[in-house]
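Hypothesis: this fold can be encoded by more than one sequence.
Test: take the structure tokens below, design a sequence, compare later.
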């Protein structure tokens, strides 16, 4: 097939070089964006009189038929074409004749591919935000259902203080809301049009870049043509946001894996989101959560790979930058799949509140409340802390818990103890005394849930 760039060279490359150079196997997914960009470009060329208006209309109509045929499957991508841009232009020229050859006036593949990628990632950002919102809604529903279910809160993977399961879940809702904020903020920098930058220096034609940008829904244009074709910050920024989002999912997945183990047994995952063992019939494996945890490294790799690609490139466009698409495509695909799976997994899990409460009762996670009890009696906190620690040690020796230790033994450590100490170390009381804003008491958890719903409604 004749190369559209043949001229300075004969364009007679080897099959091996053609395959190595080709990107249509992965950039063909941008066909909608490529055609939309070409329609806008043709419209601008016609409006400015750079090409005849009737030819601009023929180009637009021809592009529409190509889009329709691709959507219905009537037209298939030609793997022998170098990229999606060449494919569309060649099909267009074959269908409408020489008028199709005018489409590439006042643009280069350098600004064309940057345009397509920005349009594509703008759409992907919106899709990922939508899926993240859906997951937050599932989390908020579960948090409302279990806003008063007590379980141990952990630090260093050691039982620390009592919290509610709703409070714990809402921590992840807050993380995911920040992820949405990062994605939406990055979208502003995606939504800047590079078209009209041409190869690197702009063009001698009297184009209207802002008209073209506005017709495609961009907020503005790249103000430096060299930056317009060589900037991939928007890709890196999106990959960074997706890597952080995956880190949040991975942390949540790790807890799901722990909670569903026999050692914890705080939850049971639905059969729809677990697998079995080929040899051990008793197994119910949290494979979906494990895969989310594993795929996080994959998205990290996408980010690291593109950073490495970009780190030494001189201005302006270099063929290395063809390597920008597969990492962002892979990361977007991976994140969308993980969000969908996670929403189903969290929505369908069974919460074993009795097991959670029993774990909370045996971990001395009310020891801080015991110290606070003495502080309210007038003892300095550091002294109260030491006394509480010695009482916990005594309970461990005797196989007792703070709720059942006899009052006489309490008084052996301090005369400040009285019968009201048992109310002070009651788990429900411990949770519901934590009334500081953002805390784990039920009214505060309800506020967090309501705030999350308000944020979702505003997005």
């Amino acid at each position: 097939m004749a190369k559209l760039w043949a001229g300075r060279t004969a364009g007679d490359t080897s099959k091996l070089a053609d395959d190595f150079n080709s990107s249509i196997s992965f950039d063909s997914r941008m066909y909608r964006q490529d055609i939309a960009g070409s329609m806008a470009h043709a419209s601008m060329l016609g409006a400015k009189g750079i090409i005849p208006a009737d030819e601009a209309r023929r180009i637009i109509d021809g592009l529409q038929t190509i889009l329709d045929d691709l959507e219905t499957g009537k037209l298939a991508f030609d793997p022998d074409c170098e990229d999606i841009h060449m494919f569309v232009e060649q099909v267009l020229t074959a269908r409408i004749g020489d008028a199709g050859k005018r489409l590439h006036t006042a643009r280069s593949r350098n600004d064309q591919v940057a345009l397509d990628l920005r349009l594509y990632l703008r759409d992907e950002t919106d899709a990922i935000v939508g899926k993240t919102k859906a997951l937050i809604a599932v989390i908020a529903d579960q948090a409302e259902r279990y806003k008063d279910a007590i379980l141990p809160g952990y630090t260093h993977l050691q039982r620390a203080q009592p919290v509610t399961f709703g409070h714990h879940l809402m921590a992840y809702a807050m993380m995911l809301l920040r992820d949405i904020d990062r994605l939406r903020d990055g979208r502003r920098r995606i939504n800047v049009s590079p078209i009209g930058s041409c190869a690197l220096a702009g063009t001698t034609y009297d184009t209207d870049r802002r008209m073209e940008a506005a017709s495609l829904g961009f907020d503005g244009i790249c103000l430096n043509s060299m930056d317009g074709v060589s900037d991939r910050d928007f890709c890196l920024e999106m990959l960074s946001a997706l890597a952080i989002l995956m880190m949040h999912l991975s942390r949540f997945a790790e807890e799901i894996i722990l909670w569903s183990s026999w050692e914890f047994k705080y939850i049971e995952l639905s059969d729809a989101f677990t697998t079995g063992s080929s040899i051990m019939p008793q197994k119910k494996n949290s494979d979906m959560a494990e895969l989310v945890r594993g795929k996080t490294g994959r998205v990290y790799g996408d980010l690291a790979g593109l950073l490495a690609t970009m780190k030494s490139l001189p201005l302006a466009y270099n063929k290395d930058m063809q390597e920008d698409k597969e990492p962002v495509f892979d990361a977007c695909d991976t994140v969308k799949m993980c969000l969908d799976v996670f929403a189903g997994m969290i929505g369908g899990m069974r919460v074993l509140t009795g097991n959670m409460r029993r774990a909370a009762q045996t971990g001395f996670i009310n020891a801080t409340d015991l110290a606070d009890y003495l502080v309210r009696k007038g003892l300095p906190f550091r002294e109260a802390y030491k006394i509480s620690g010695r009482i916990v040690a005594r309970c461990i020796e005797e196989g007792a818990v703070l709720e059942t230790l006899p009052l006489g033994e309490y008084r052996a450590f301090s005369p400040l103890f009285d019968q009201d100490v048992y109310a002070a170390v009651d788990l429900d009381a411990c949770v519901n005394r934590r009334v500081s804003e953002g805390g784990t008491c039920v009214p505060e958890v309800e506020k967090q849930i309501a705030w999350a719903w308000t944020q979702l409604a505003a997005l």
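The beta strands are 150-155, 158-164, 192-193, 220-221, 267-268, 350-351. DSSP finds 19 helices and six strands in the chain.
Hypothesis status: open.
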